[in-house]
Specification:
Elements (H helix, E strand, L loop, with lengths): L8 E4 L2 E2 L2 E2 L2 H16 L3 E7 L6 H5 L4 E6 L8 H15 L3 E5 L2 H14 L3 E5 L1 E5 L2 E8 L4 E5 L7 E5 L16 E5 L3 H4 L23 E5 L9 H11 L2 E4 L1 H5 L20 E5 L5 H7 L4 E6 L12 E4 L2 H14 L13
The chain binds flavin-adenine dinucleotide (FAD).
Length: 341
């Protein structure tokens, strides 16, 4: 154990294609509040091969940055990452370790907590401190209650938080911090996995969590091929395509487009729900939408209860007509126009 790190609050930075992913800064905003309440330093841990400069992490609130550098960490191999993070956690003994509920964060933290034998609260939407312990708040029972979870006995207290659940702090380029270079043990880098390649997802528009306009489809779209209509509308509106879990489970849309409790939380200016009933688990992910439009054949569908505008009718009739109308009138809204409104 190195006393220098004992009791710190740690956040896990993520690297994508050689650059720090924005969730790394969101986590520092969460971590800053927790570290200040506990009166301890805040550190960001960056595993990777040739990780990027730490200055931006200091600017966004880190007091310390641990760079764990090795060619074996070039690609995200969950067992190698977890092995290195387990060694670091045992050596420096942080009291709190926060990661993002991204695919990387969820994967590595679930292996790490099992190796360390401590607790993990997944998918938190709020973090605070009570009686010197991390209070981890997350939706439970289908999103109907908010559960407060504490881990009094094991260290570190570990959790993942939803991406986009907090804005990064305003960067202060004059902030400086301590840089610690950590050399991973070769034995901990051993992996049963082989990196084959990376295929970027082919999709219309931005990732849904960043989109200003979301055109989302549910089981009422009837068939996978009808999602092509949603893509066309999304292109015309400068938006992205979302989906209900039912549509994702049917293979009509990728999981990355799922909105809801077990999908993504989104905050667009405009959310158009086509053939989505409005189950509570779906609504849990779209509560941040500014304006909601719903199209459904059932006038009693719960989605109408949260909509600003509703159309009772078949998506398969209304959607082609809307697309035709937008094309005829050339009312194409370039991406970014809504963002600048
Ligand atoms: C633990 C848990 C987590 C979950 N997480 C999520 C989640 O993250 N996201 C999520 O979405 N769900 C989630 N669910 C599932 C959720 O409960 C619903 O089953 C799901 O949202 C239903 O999807 P849907 O609205 O597409 O389908 P349905 O509920 O089957 O609704 C289809 C709708 O389409 C309408 N319709 C039918 N034909 C047409 C037509 N031609 N034109 C227009 N409308 C039409 C129908 O009237 C109906 O309202 C979760 C469930 C559980 C238990």
């Amino acid at each position: 154990m190195k006393a220098g790190g004992r009791g710190e609050v740690w956040t896990l930075a993520e690297i994508r294609e050689g650059r720090l992913h924005p969730v790394s800064y969101e986590l520092l905003a969460w971590g800053r509040g927790v570290a200040d309440a506990l009166g301890v330093p805040l550190a960001s841990v960056v595993p990777g091969d040739n990780p990027p400069d730490a200055a931006s992490l200091f600017a966004h609130g880190a007091d310390k940055v641990y760079l764990a550098e090795d060619p074996g960490l070039k690609h995200f191999l969950v067992d190698a990452y977890a092995g290195v993070l387990a060694d670091m956690t045992e050596e420096y003994e942080p009291q709190v370790f926060i990661a993002s509920a991204t695919t990387q964060g969820r994967s590595v933290m679930s292996v790490l907590y099992a190796r360390l034998g401590c607790g993990l609260t997944a998918d938190c939407t709020d973090l605070s401190v009570r009686d010197g312990l991390l209070l981890q708040t997350r939706p439970a029972i289908g999103g109907n209650v908010m559960a407060d979870i504490m881990t009094p006995e094991r260290r570190p207290q570990m959790c993942t938080v939803r991406p986009k659940s907090k804005r990064p702090l305003t960067p202060d380029p004059s902030r400086k911090g301590e840089l610690v270079r950590y050399t991973p043990k070769k034995s901990s880098l051993a992996s049963a996995l082989t990196f084959l390649g990376f295929d970027p997802e082919l999709r219309v528009g931005l990732p849904i969590q960043d989109a200003e306009v979301i055109v989302a489809g549910g089981k009422g779209m009837k068939e996978a091929k009808n999602f092509a209509l949603l893509e066309e509308l999304a292109r015309l509106l400068g938006g992205s395509v979302g989906a209900s879990r039912a549509a994702v489970d049917l293979g009509w849309a990728p999981h990355s487009s799922q909105v809801g409790l077990s999908g993504k939380s989104v905050t667009p200016r405009l959310y158009i729900a086509w053939g989505i009933s409005g189950a509570v688990q779906h609504l849990a992910g779209m509560g941040g939408a500014e304006t909601v439009v719903a199209v459904n054949i059932d006038p009693n569908a719960p989605i109408f209860g949260v909509s600003d505008f509703g159309v009772v009718g078949s998506a398969l009739e209304v959607l082609p007509r809307l697309i035709d109308d937008l094309k005829k009138n050339k009312r194409h809204i370039p991406a970014g126009r809504l963002a600048g409104r």
